[in-house]
Amino acid sequence: MTLSRRISNPYLETPSNKIYGESSSCAGRALRNIFTLQASDLIKDRVYLTGICRRSCVGSELVDWLLEQCPFVKCRSTAVGVWQLLLDMGIILSVDRQLYFQDSHAFYQFSADECTYLFCEFEKEEAWKNGVKLLLQLLPLSPPRIDMCNLPDQKIEDTAETNAEILARLTSAVQRELAAVIALKARKSAIHQNEENSSQEIRGLEELKDTSDAQAGVLCKLQGRDDIGRIELVQKLARENCQFLQADRKALEKAEQVDDGGGGERAREAAGAALVLRKVWSRSPAPERRGRYVVVSGTPEKILEHLLSDLHLEAAQDKETETLLDDFLLTYTVFMTTDDLCQALLRHYCAKNHQGKEDDSDVSCRKRKVLHLVSQWTSLYKDWLHEDEHLKQFLKTIYRNVLDDVYEYPVLEKDLKEFQKILGMHRRHTVDEYSPHRKNKTFFHQFSVKENWLQQRGTMNETEEIFCRVYITEHSYVSVKAQVSTSAQEILKIVAEKIQYPEEELALVTVSFSGEKHELQPNDLAISKSLESSSRMFVYRKDLTDSLNPFSENEELQQRSVRILGINTWDLALELTNFDWSLFNAIHEQELIYFTFSRQGSAENTENLSLLLQRCNEVQLWVATEILLCSQLCKRVQLVKKFIKIAAHCKAQRNLNSFFAIVMGLNTASVSRLSQTWEKIPGKFKKLFTELESLTDPSLNHKAYRDAFKKMKSPKIPFMPLLLKDVTFIHEGNKTFLDNLVNFEKLHMIADTVRSLRHCRNNQFGNEVPSKEHHELKPYVHHLHVIDNQQALFELSHRIEPRV
């Protein structure tokens, strides 16, 4: 077993020359030097998880080479021991940061340190084999290779999750399935052990099989309240050969009515509607500890009913109730439509006094709880709800009901004033629907996984902003962020400035995939026509006869100037951060839910999220494009250094989205293969880039990134693809419906992940702006010029640095 985490070990904390001696270190360096000379073909740039691993070799090839060159090394295990000594000495380094050398397809790199002695006994041509023989003598003296499972006295410095913490993150359904598997294996193991013990026990088992269930050994009847998720209980019952029986449902309900306080889980059923709850205990000191129930699964109606009963109006909500309310409002579109929710809330608000069991205070309390939920709903979604027709009608209806009830229940007067504010906000949205000052917010739509119901979106608002691609060549485009109402002339002006070409000599043309061309007139709405899925928008040149001529790739390469070299790196990173923040701040939490659950093309419901994801991809392509379009080696080296500094500044400004994009852009195959360029990068920049790369290491579920991001204070911009991966992982690993009940534990985990956006946006970025000396910086960052074809990028890469 390999050890992937750092362990407190006396051997690891002592310099290698003190353990093995200085001569052994010289022998190891001599072996390294002769390998780099004789087997340079085995040292290559290799594709790794985080990108390209430069000048690395494979563990199994190192072993093969040593066996071939040194006949006195008799077996592979001995050769592995020699390379292990070099790994302990730090002469070779594991790319995976493993402590033990692996005779497999593991990657290793050589250190650059040299011998400090003026006259080294192993520096001669054939003397290196004597060094190998010296290393062989040290093998019996090397530290023992201890597996992780045999380290009772070793302290793992990285805080590891205990088994209990891991199990706590699983839903009840997964815990039950896991417990059933363990019980089955434990039962088989117990039976197998009994069969081997004595033939008498075998005969006993055969007799037990022939007896009736009523006399078949020990029977253990588990109630629904028993915590079957306890692994120890399941294993114990299996060893004792207990059988699991399904408890009688009526008896279970009767027992719960008698004693409601002792169970870990309980179910309530009535007329086909069910709600499954689990009892949890507060973290208060023992005398003040009290249990409460959290929702595990249920029907939408019962979940809403439990939520309303849990609300407290006079006192502040406890954390569990706030979480339940927030979970419900964030994820309700998964299992019910907005119209269904509106109708359910109206039923609860207008419910009559049932058989005289409620007094006036209970009725008014129920009505106030409904109004409180509506208030929280509109507060959470803000202007997302004002386009929904069902909600408009619902707000009007419930407002009239409150006006009618305020005379009978004066306590509703305060809620009426709050509701008038909500309705006033809604009316403002209706009046200012097309205000030019309206923020870039996508429309709200709801969907239901169960019914596969999606509401179609209406026409786009004129002030809505999108990214528009204007192609210069077949594979190169300028990304323009503009409103839907932007004219062709305005788009053309932006593109002309970007490519430094006279505007009057250019024309915008839509080209369909069939080759049909249509020139856009200055006052045409360019974006609405270019958004058709069957066409692209190109910029063409006009000649004296007004005929249209496309740009060629060679012309673009010759005319392009490297403007980025004259821009301050901090200002450029700051402009990237400001632009990314405007995109990130416009994302609604509901968009992540839509992105995860909607199986159909629902880009219209996740527009702000899609903009940020598209931006991340374009920044990555922008880095590669700028470097590969620079034909001069010296300027290309300056560009790589520039991008490394920009990535470091983005990290310092807590913009992890652009940080990841720039690092990935530098690690693309077409850029990382530029060996002449990378060889001229100073060691200081190489070291900085290695440190930045370590933050993108995907091992241990991106632990390096998660730890660093957690320590950053808000505001901060996360790497959105990883956040979406977390939500998708929860979605794919758990069923949304269990026995026709909503799996609310799954929705809670998803909502908990989505809520991380709030922490990132607790504060706003400062008003720091780039220096005024770069007036072209903002349009440069907002409208990136990129090549989006990987084949074209590789052709450029081989053109500026041909393969040797």
Written overview of the protein:
By secondary structure, the chain is α+β, with helices and mostly antiparallel strands. It has 5 domains: 16-150, Orthogonal Bundle (Arc Repressor Mutant, subunit A); 167-258, no CATH class; 265-431, Son of sevenless (SoS) protein Chain: S domain 1 (Son of sevenless (SoS) protein, Chain S, domain 1), CATH 1.20.870; 465-559, Phosphatidylinositol 3-kinase Catalytic Subunit, Chain A, domain 1 (Ubiquitin-like (UB roll)), CATH 3.10.20.90; 565-800, Son of Sevenless (SoS) protein, Chain S, domain 2. It has 33 helices and 20 strands. The strands form 5 sheets. Strands 12, 13, 14, 15, 16, 17 and 20 form a 7-stranded mixed beta sheet that branches. A 5-stranded antiparallel beta sheet has the order 7-8-9-19-18. Strand 18 (737-738) and strand 19 form a beta hairpin. Mean pLDDT is 73; it is low at 1-15, 146-162, 198-232, 243-271, 427-462, 529-533 and 554-559.
Count of discrete structural domains: 5
Percent range for β-strand residues: 5-15%
| Fourth-level CATH superfamily of the largest domain | Ras guanine-nucleotide exchange factors catalytic domain
CATH class of the largest domain: Mainly Alpha
From the spread of the alpha carbons, the general shape counts as: flat
N→C terminal distance: 41 Å
Helix content: 40-55%
Number of helices: 33
Largest sheet: 7 strands, mixed
Number of strands: 20
Identify the quaternary structure here.
single chain
Q: How confident overall, as mean pLDDT?
A: 73
